[in-house]
Amino acid sequence: MRLSRSIRNRFVVATVALVAVGIGALLALSFYLGNETRSALRDATLASELEQAAEGLAVDPGARLSQSRTLRIYRAQSPDLPREYLHLGPGTHPRVTVGERLYHVMVRDTERGYLYASFDVTERERLEAADRWVIMGCGVVFVIVIALSAVWLARSMLSPIDELAARLEQISPEDRAVRIGSGFGGTELAPIANSIDGFLARLDGFVQREQSFTESASHELRSPLAVLQGATELLAEQAREQPALARTVERIRRATRDMSEFTQALLLLAREPHSITNPGEQCDATEIASRVIEEQLSLIAGKPVTVHCACSEAVHVSAPASLVKIVLSNLVRNAILATDAGSISCHARGRTIELHDSGGGIPEDAMGKIFDRNFSLRPGGHGLGLHLTKRICDHFGWSLGLESTATGTVARVTF
User: Fold this and answer.
1) Residues 6+ positions from 67 with CB-CB distance below 8 Å
2) Is 316 helix (H, G, I), strand (E, B) or coil?
3) What is the CATH number of domain 2-146?
4) Helix extents (H) in 296-366
5) Among 128, 114, 109, which Cα is nearest to 39's?
6) 1 pLDDT band (50/70/90 cuts)?
7) What three-state secondary structure class fits 111?
8) Cα(321)–Cα(265) distance, rounded to whole angstroms?
9) Which residues contact 256 (CB under 8 A, 6 or more apart)?
10) Is the pTM of this model over 0.85?
11) Do domains 2-146 and 277-414 have the same CATH topology?
12) Sheet holding 399-404, edge to edge
């Protein structure tokens, strides 16, 4: 829609500008040629009158010179010669003002002295000025008519593009087998519409394959994970009297649970956001944060690091608990791995959970790509944790931010 309006505006402006420049050039040329023609005719008339007057004075020095309402011949000695003419030299002087009148004057040097031929052009100039205003007014009206015609023509020409854009905007992501090419048959947009239909067909095939894979993965992955979870529960019962084995089984059970939740999260992210969130499904983000910190204390592994969690006020989130746990788990794990010595603290402020660590902070050149896929600050890291965390937050409209300070890093999640 925005593109078609841009093309329409450019077409209208270009058409009006071209017509206006053309009309302006024609009017200027016509005014110029008209003035030159009238000036040449006046010069020819005055030259003829002066020639006749000079011939008459050569025969009779006292001959009477031409005197009319618009044309008058003066001698240099004439008592009624306007004083404005006295400074005029031989030649043509198209615009000489005498009082409120305008004259076209020609001066010729003869044997009897200067002769002045004066033609009154006052009324003619007024009429010509009025004619010019009328012509320019007609030109403006013509430009306005052209502009309106250009707007109508542009709208008519671009209406198929607007229709195509409207049809595309009406296509919902859930719609399948939607095709638009039939509505543009025989028009210039038919190749574009047919290409879009081909893309929609390929997209439908891709979506169908993805849905088939998601359904198959959902079944094929949950079954072995359920078996693993059941087996670890049984092993945990059998290893109660063996502390070392019990710790190992607990790690296996936690890893299996995390794998199950991670798999569930990936399957959920393959769907539309509105199909994920169940209005009746809620979880407490602070409770999950406390549990995540407790579960990951084993990662400290004897490092001189203190962990403090001040998440007493509940933060209810309308989302699957597994996804909230993945977000918080990745942030807590990164904080623990980045901190070799110091402290880690977790606070709840309103609907925001903040995680502070004293791990030294994030380099400035890495801040712009910290959420990129496959980017990691740790050697051997895959960079999937923060990328997945950011994707989950964007999916639900949560705000995720990382801030590097002089003492470490601050991670904030606002639900």
Assistant:
1) 73
2) strand
3) 3.30.450
4) 321-338
5) 128
6) very low
7) coil
8) 10
9) 225, 228, 229, 232
10) no
11) no
12) 305-310, 342-349, 352-357, 409-414, 399-404
> If you average pLDDT over residues 239-252, what whole number do you get?
80
Q: Which residue has the tokens 């078609």?
A: 4
The burial class, CB within 10 Å (0-12 / 13-18 / 19+), for 144 is exposed
Q: Which pLDDT tens digit goes with each residue over 176-235?
A: 777 877 777 777 677 888 888 888 888 778 777 776 776 676 667 777 777 887 888 888
20-58 tens-digit pLDDT: 888 888 878 887 887 788 888 888 888 888 888 888 887
| Local structure of 400: helix, strand or coil | strand
State what percent of residues in the chain have pLDDT above 90.
8
> Residue 204 class from Cβ within 10 Å (0-12 exposed, 13-18 middle, 19+ buried)?
middle
Third-level CATH fold of 277-414: Heat Shock Protein 90 (3.30.565)
Q: Do residues 285 and 241 lie in contact, with contact meaning Cβ atoms separated by under 8 Å?
A: no
**DSSP letter for each residue of 230-299:** HHHHHHHHHTTT-HHHHHHHHHHHHHHHHHHHHHHHHHHHTS-HHHH--TT--EEHHHHHHHHHHHTGGG
Do the strands 342-349 and 352-357 form a parallel or antiparallel pair, or are they unpaired? antiparallel
Four-point Cα dihedral 188, 192, 197, 203, nearest 10? -170
Contacts of 95 (CB under 8 A, 6+ apart): 102, 104
Domain locations in the chain?
A: 2-146, 190-255, 277-414
